[in-house]
Amino acid sequence: MKDIDGWKSVLTDQDRAKKYREYVTGWEKKIGSLLEWKLPEAGKIKSSEGILASVPFAVKDNIAVEGFKLTCGSKILEYVKAPYTATGVANLQKTGALVMGKANLDEFGMGSSTDNSALQKTNNPYDTSRVAGGSSGGSAAAVAAGIVPFALGTDTGGSVRQPAGFCGVYGLKPTYGVVSRYGLTAYASSLEVCGVCARTVDTTRTVFHAIRGMDGMDQTTIDYDPVSPEVKTVGVLKVEEGSLSEEVAASYRVSKDRLNKLGYAVKEIEIPAMEYVVPAYYTIATAEASANLARFNGMRYGLSPIFAESPDDLMRYSRNMGFGEEVKTRILLGTFVLRSGFQDQYYVRAQKIRTLIRQELDEIFTDCDVIMLPVFPTAPFHHGQSELTSFQQKQADVYTCLANMTGSPGLAVPSTLEKGLPVGVQFMAPPCGEERLFTVAEALEKEFPAPRPAGYSEEWRA
Amino acid sequence: MSDTMVNDKYETFVGLEIHIHLLTESKMFCGCKANYGDEPNTNVCPVCLGYPGVLPTVNQKAMKMGYTVARALNCRLSRKTYFERKNYFYPDMPKNYQISQFQEPVGVEGFMEFEYNDEIKKIRIHDVHLEEDAGKMIHAGDMSLQDFNRAGYPLLEIVTEPDLKSGEETEAFLRAFRRMVRYLGVCDGNMDEGSMKCDANISINTPGAGLGTKVELKNMNSPRFVRRGLQYEAQRQAKALDEGVKLIQETRLWNENRDITESMRTKEMANDYRYFPEPDMPPFCPDDSFMADVEKEQVELPLARKHKIMRKYGISSEQAEFIHDEKVNADYFEQVMALGADAQAVYTWLSSDVQKELNLLNMTLTESPLSPERFSELLKLMDDGKISGKIAKQVLIDVFEEDRDPSAIVEEKGLSQISDPQAIGAVIEKVMAANEEVVKAIREGEQKQKGFLVGQIMKETGGRAAPALVQKILSEKLR
Ligand SMILES: [Zn+2]
Predict the structure, then answer these.
(1) According to CATH, where is 1.10.10.410 located in chain B?
(2) pLDDT reported for residue A425
(3) Chain A residues within 8 A of B53 when measuring between CB atoms
(4) What is the structure's pLDDT at B381?
């Protein structure tokens, strides 16, 4: 029996539903992964024939689901209800799956810890003093704790893969354009995509195929034209001494050894343009963010003062009260790089770097079927900025934002537990090469399946 | 205030930014009805309200209209056009950026010809680009309300080079431009309803010295106000230069109540729009079939039409001006002419009685019951002497009221002209008998009274007696 099938009766069977509610409540007290959750009453669920019939899942709270709020982890949208449902979610609902809650995140997806959520703190299920990663920290933590078999997240620069790595689950960032962005609150439109956090490779694959598809509401969606799923050669990124923490470096070696053991041809690779990927990424991301977040002005919805002298004042108060520090910083950065007279120096140059990186990766994929690289340079860190400052956290996006810059798919795979904390490893494939990622991940899953935090239980399931 | 006064000493340069609302069913980037006159906030959806997570999808019809106008304006058409975000904060702009075009608009480097003072003028077009409109603020006492029906409405902006030389010439250009977009069927051109808007930039300088300090002029809601605003501004600038005052680059508003322009903002306060390519929509690359469709949308443009009508039918420039003003009227005119009619008669009727009827019933020629066939028939009845001009006017009214053919009306109501001398003679005798006093007076030399008898005769025949015959026979009988 597939792991996912065990979830089909947790809402429909009265007895299991009761245990499920207790299980979720218990974990939520510890980790706070969900901003909002509600289990449909057993009697009210229509029996469904779909492949995910009655399976509960969580959705990152920057993705619209009618009937739920759409806070984006921000004060400015704290009480905003979604007036429609995102295409990816609607596609999943067609398979019978049921949204049970909205997952916490760094405000508007900006961060790597979920500490930037203005509404709630989310803890790592393996150690509540540590972060779950971000920005889809709530989604990854909920899956790791066994609250849901999978959750949707969004990945702009690593926001699905990094928390998946921190929580010891699978995290897929699909090829850009393969999954509709309609309903995903835009942070950096040209970089981001809806992704999947799941407990098994099989579930990841099932959910990926359920959510993808061309969408009339998103003109950037593309036809999914898969490349061959076969994997023979794995390019392993050469990582400079000292750029990874001791634990992550050790874990990386373990994964590499496993590839050898499994019989893959392993080839060491280098990506010279990687040196520029973070500055170029943040230039593009913040430029787009400065426009994308301009709509939140307190005029039509969201936080606004009761009275203002002028529309300008109303906008100023709303944004000042409603946006957190990290969001303000990125809006200012983006406004700065787009100033007239400075575009060539920043935005245009960043786009050139993007093209360069794409070319380097195209080259690599001519003789590597997939490449392996770290997810994040450290294991899950403690809350706050004592271990990694906000700036260091941005620099640490280097391994993940690569896939966003090129549009390629990336998958975070559980690698090891180091001192009781999960460490992941990442695989990237050429565009529409998701099946290659699943091929490798499935082989590795047999060596090391997703770990279980203390308190994890499946007993209440079928 | 005349234009020449300024022109004698200074050269004037006027450029325009014309916005037209495209006549599409739906908005530019969502499926909402493009009908901003409806009950406030009824034609809105998450997309045009700028809700989190929504994405724009381009209106193909608006895209085609954009290319159609650019083609009619002789522009170089883009084979890969794309949208950009124009960033600025405006309370009724839902996303706080406008999706517009900048680097690669649908068309660039075109020109438009128009007639001014019997001369053909050529104005260069800088570019033609597509964008979306904002909503509308309604101020009610202490409150400001917003109506987003207009938000996301498809707009086409046409930017000219500063080739216009005076307010008067600009007014003539605008009227010609309005006529052109109406010919193309892409905009109704109503400036008073806001479906066509025009901002101008104007500078003056001593002849030969090139452009002067540019002033942007806004808030001119009719071609007449555009003329007056520009005339005022040219005078103001001339006076400043005469007095040695340095002009500043600024934006000024036309105040139609005070007939002056007033400073709104100077360049230092101008926005930095921070344009960058819209990541939510891929570039649009028109294929050959799209371009062929654009070609199909092209019509004979007003200026060419006017001159053709003048040549072909031998009518004056003034008459052709009236006939070609609306494409449907020009079409109608040519249809009537094809059925065989006298151009002068057609013009005279169209410009007077027919126009009067249309105004009265508030309808256009094409929606009126007066088809080209019926109109031609009416003229033929008159030409053949079947009815008099006076009866024809009555028949015209009847055609409008009864929606029937003129010949049927004439026949059924017995309106055909009486041209039998014996029948007319009998009526004359009857009238003379009934007015013996008048007859006596005329015979004693009071010729003025003759008109009274003619009137009585026409009344007796219901206006149907052939007027020339009445005159002839009456004179004989009075002798
Ligand atoms: Zn709409």
Answers:
(1) 421-478
(2) 98
(3) 62-64, 70, 82, 86, 181-186
(4) 84
pLDDT digits (tens, 9 = 90+) for A196-241: 999 999 999 999 999 999 999 999 999 999 999 999 999 999 998 8
Q: Between residues A387 and A409, which one has the greater pLDDT?
A: A409
Angle between helices B467-478 and B421-434 (to 10 degrees): 60
Cis peptide before B317 (omega within 30 of 0): no
Angle at A269 between CA A267 and CA A275, to 5 degrees: 165
Query: A109: CA distance to ligand 1 center in Å?
Result: 26
CA separation for the pair A6, A53 (Å, rounded): 11
Helices (H), B154-245: 167-184, 223-242
> Is residue A106 helix, strand or coil?
coil
How far out from the chain centre does Cα B49 lie?
33
Give CA–CA dist B79/B108, Å, rounded. 12
Percent of chain A with pLDDT over 90: 87
Nearest-CA neighbor of A234 among A269, A268, A266? A266
Q: Where are the alpha helices (DSSP H) in A369-433?
A: 390-395, 401-406
pLDDT in tens, B286-340: 999 999 999 999 999 999 999 999 999 999 999 999 999 989 889 999 999 999 8
Min distance A167 CA to chain B CA atoms (Å): 27
Name the residue with tokens 């359920």. Answer: A210
Q: Give distance in angstroms: CA of B473 to centre of ligand 1.
A: 76
Compute the nearest-CA separation of B155 from chain A (Å): 20
Confidence of residue A402 (pLDDT cuts 50, 70, 90): very high
- Separation CA B345–CA B318 (nearest Å): 15
Give me the DSSP letters along B269-322: G------EE-TTSPPB---HHHHHHHHHT----HHHHHHHHHHHHT--HHHHHH
CA distance A339 to chain B (A): 6
What percent of chain B has a predicted confidence (pLDDT) above 90? 54
DSSP state of A282: H
State the pLDDT at residue B4.
Answer: 47
Is A374 exposed, middle or buried (CB count within 10 Å of its CB: 0-12, 13-18, 19+)? buried
DSSP, collapsed to helix, strand or coil, labels residue A281 as helix
| Backbone φ and ψ of A173, nearest 5° | -105, 110
Q: Are B158 and B73 in contact (CB under 8 A)?
A: yes
DSSP one-letter string for A209-228:
HHH---BTTBTT-----PPP
Distance CA A280, CA A406 (A): 12
Whether B347 contacts B315, CB under 8 Å: yes
If you average pLDDT over residues B153-182, what whole number do you get?
Answer: 95
Does the CA dihedral B286-B287-B289-B291 come out positive or negative? positive
What does the alpha-carbon distance between residue A212 and residue B91 come to, in Å, rounded to a whole number? Answer: 36
User: Is A315 in Cβ contact with B55 (below 8 Å)?
Assistant: no
A336 touching B (Cβ < 8 Å): no
Read off the tokens for A51: 């492949």
In degrees, to the nearest 5, what angle opens at C-alpha B422 toward C-alphas B417 and B426?
95
> What are the Cα distances from residue A225, in Å, to A190, A228, A342, B279?
20, 10, 38, 22
Find which of A193, A297, A301, A307 to mutate to test the B interface (most B CBs within 10 Å of its CB): A297
Which of the following CATH numbers is that of domain B421-478: 3.40.1280.10, 3.40.50.720, 3.40.50.300, 1.10.10.410?
1.10.10.410
Nearest to A174 by CA among A195, A204, A192, A199: A195
Backbone angles phi, psi at A242, to 5 degrees: 90, -10
> How would you classify the pairing of strands A233-237 and A370-374?
parallel
Q: Which of B81, B274, B285 to mutate to test the interface with A (most CBs of A within 10 A)?
A: B274
- Give, as one character, the DSSP assignment of residue A407: T
- The answer to whether A269 and A236 have CB atoms below 8 angstroms apart is yes
pLDDT at B2 over 80: no
Q: Distance between CA A352 and CA A345 in Å, rounded? A: 11
